[in-house]
TrEMBL record:
Matching InterPro entries: Amino_oxidase, FAD/NAD-bd_sf, Retinol_saturase
Domain Amine oxidase as annotated: residue spans: 218-494
Record-linked Pfam families: Amino_oxidase, NAD_binding_8
Keyword Signal attached: yes
Protein name in the entry: Phytoene dehydrogenase
Gene3D superfamilies xref list: FAD/NAD(P)-binding domain
Alphabetized UniProt keyword annotations: FAD, Flavoprotein, NAD, NADP, Signal
Highest taxon of the lineage: Bacteria
Sequence intervals crossing the membrane: none
Organism name: Nocardioides luteus
Length: 565
């Protein structure tokens, strides 16, 4: 199934390279798919528009490389023994290279709403006990609410599940909580971490929120040793040590369709690359609207795209402090809400207004991974403070396409807004770290426009298509498409969003390309990579360097697929 590629442009040798599959986008979804394909003997080319791989799991460094910040790796669930993450990485022999550090088993996330502080534990039983302890007058309602969410998400009491799915699962989580008579405070605590999918509760099906809670409650929260960039670096290494290539600064402009079949891609500079299979792990909306093009869409898909809503974009503030917060016992992960009206906040943002008081997710890499060598020097802490902001270029006073180099970074209105929102985020963060401003030695903010520019997502959305019923379960986009040879990977597909889901899903997409059930094979013990074939890790290993072009050590193609039970 191999065809000849046209010669790549400057900086990329190999006029005679041929590819079985081209993957668009080097986020966790695209890279995992590429790695599984390469490990199974396919010649794979991954094309990434950015100058570093990893998508939203990329990191960046500031202050002369003194501080490193994660863009979108704060906490991940299902990473323990037997969890989906370990299974997906086992098939690629990566479990020793991408190590997951369990975060505070006694309570991985501190939730703060006015008057209440709550530690999210592991396990539904403890979760219920803590909710009841926090709101003793609401025990009956809390028991009912948690029991229903648990049946829906954890699959316990299977006979009752279909009933609860139909009765409550498809209705908004707020309806269930209201029906259980929960107070605004109790509701706020249950909803407080929903910034991990940025969608208003009144529009979030109970099944979605319950599934989200279950993601962390079943085995706790994890963070990758060495920071989020290890994901991109090691997946890239599997690809390049198995005969594949990962090209950065290679923006795909078009997926080529001939006689109704995907046959390759065209880059922004005009280079055409042909392959038997094309996998798009880029933004769902842009894949169809821009890369494939209206003329190749079905009527149904066109309709879907017209009304398609994306999850809201984030506004993030990256801060370094000249104090080690571990010495104070500050929680490494927290959500701080200055109000208990979660829906009220979302409604403001949806209406295009930036509320005076903003909720903030606080993540402290130096506390999550104390031995991380790149986060900060000893005695310092790094913090990622995430919140939401209205979407749309108009709100941010940006004209033109930020992914096409539209200038906005010096625009006064843009800078003013950025500064205003930065101060609001710091105001909320002060509720947990009162001297944050005094100890701050570095501060920089990113807007939805920044996210759009670096990951090319629609409106800077962080979590793909909105988790409405019409986009969930059987209605979620499949990894196979109506166009033969074209497959999808990434956060908007049937496997869902988030780092765990996109890695798991990347394996699923590779299986679809190969016509095999890779998930079942890996679950049965198949390992397709011999660790000895991967690039040796030296003491000075730098995941960021290994994620940039030219730094990846390419080895002779190793095409023999290995399957060991
Ligand atoms: C601020 C933030 C916080 C987050 N926090 C968490 C968290 O704590 N836990 C968690 O599990 N998840 C978190 N996420 C979500 C998680 O990072 C994403 O779900 C995941 O990265 C999605 O992976 P993906 O492969 O679908 O796409 P992405 O990571 O978005 O990567 C897509 C890649 O495709 C490239 N691309 C797009 N179009 C083209 C093109 N035309 N040509 C070439 N390349 C292209 C982009 O440049 C990008 O690198 C967060 C995300 C953000 C933004």
């Amino acid at each position: 199934m191999t065809q000849t590629a046209t010669p790549p442009t400057q900086g990329h040798e190999a006029a005679d390279e041929t590819w079985d599959a081209v993957v668009v986008g080097a986020g966790p979804g695209g890279l995992t798919c590429g790695a599984y394909l390469a490990a199974n003997g396919k010649r794979v080319l991954v094309l990434e528009a950015n100058q570093v791989v990893g998508g939203s799991t990329q990191v960046f460094r500031r202050a002369g490389n003194k501080f490193e910040f994660d863009v979108g790796t704060h906490y991940v669930g299902e990473c323990g023994p037997g969890g989906r993450m370990q299974t997906a990485l086992t098939g690629l022999a990566l479990t020793e290279r991408i190590k997951w550090l369990r975060q505070r088993p006694e309570g991985h996330c501190q939730v703060m709403i006015p008057g209440t502080t709550f530690q999210t534990p592991t396990g539904w039983d403890t979760y219920l006990d803590r909710l009841v302890a926090a709101f003793p007058g609401e025990e009956a309602g809390l028991r009912r609410c948690v029991r229903i969410m648990r049946i829906i998400a954890a699959g316990e009491r299977p006979r009752l599940r279909p009933y609860h799915l139909l009765r409550w699962g498809i209705r908004p989580i707020t309806k269930l909580m209201d029906a259980c008579g929960l107070s605004a405070d109790a509701q706020a605590v249950i909803l407080a971490e929903n910034g991990d999918y940025t969608w208003p509760p009144y529009r979030t099906p109970t099944a979605m929120h319950a599934g989200f809670l279950h993601h962390y409650l079943q085995a706790g929260a994890y963070y990758p040793r060495g920071g989020g960039q290890v994901i991109g670096a090691h997946l890239t290494d599997v690809i390049t040590t198995h005969g594949g290539r990962v090209r950065t600064k290679a923006r795909v402009e078009r997926i080529l369709i001939e006689d109704g079949r995907a046959v390759g891609v065209r880059l922004a500079d005009g280079e055409e690359i042909r392959a038997e299979a094309v996998v798009s792990a880029a933004d769902f909306k842009k894949t169809w609207a821009d890369l494939v093009g209206d003329e190749h869409l079905t009527r149904r898909l066109r309709r879907r795209l017209r009304d398609l809503e994306m999850t809201l974009p984030m506004f993030a503030v990256y801060v370094a402090l000249d104090v080690d917060l571990r010495e104070r016992g500050t929680p490494p992960l927290a959500w701080v809400w200055p109000t208990n009206d979660v829906d009220g906040y979302y409604r403001e943002v949806e209406a295009g207004r930036a509320p005076e008081q903003m909720p903030v997710g606080i993540s402290c890499p130096t506390a999550k991974d104390p031995e991380g060598t790149h986060s900060a020097p000893p005695g310092y802490s790094t913090l990622e403070l995430v919140s939401w902001a209205p979407k749309g270029h108009e709100f941010w006073n940006v004209s033109g396409d930020p992914t096409e180099g539209a200038a906005y970074g010096r625009d006064e209105r843009y800078l003013e807004l950025k500064e205003q929102l930065t101060q609001r985020v710091l105001d909320t963060a002060e509720l947990m770290i009162p001297d944050i401003r005094e100890r701050m030695v570095f501060c920089e903010a990113s807007t939805p426009i920044t996210q759009e520019r670096f990951t090319m997502t629609s409106d800077g959305s962080c979590y793909g298509i909105a988790p409405l019923i019409k986009n969930l379960g059987p209605f979620r986009p499949r990894v196979t498409t109506h166009i033969p040879g074209l497959f999808l990977a990434g956060g908007s597909t049937e496997h869902m969003f988030g780092i765990n889901a996109t890695i798991w899903g990347g394996m699923g997409t590779a299986g679809a390309v190969l016509g095999r059930d890779l998930v079942a094979e890996v679950r049965d013990g198949a390992v397709f990579v011999d660790e000895a074939d991967l690039t040796p890790i030296t003491d000075g290993f730098d995941p960021l360097l290994a994620s940039k072009p030219g730094s990846v050590i390419r080895r002779a193609a190793r095409r023999r697929p290995k399957a060991t039970a």
